[in-house]
Amino acid sequence: MWLQHLTIKTFRNYKEAKIDFNPKLNIFLGQNAQGKPIF
To answer: Following DSSP, what letter does each residue of 2-22 receive, concatenated?
Structure first.
């Protein structure tokens, strides 16, 4: 299964987010304790 898009509303530290994924490479950057590993 390949994800193309992801929409998040009121989940953990995220109030709202819309993400379009690249089929080759995706990198999540952010400060500590921002919820990056949940993806």
So the answer is: ---EEEEEEETTEEEEEEE--
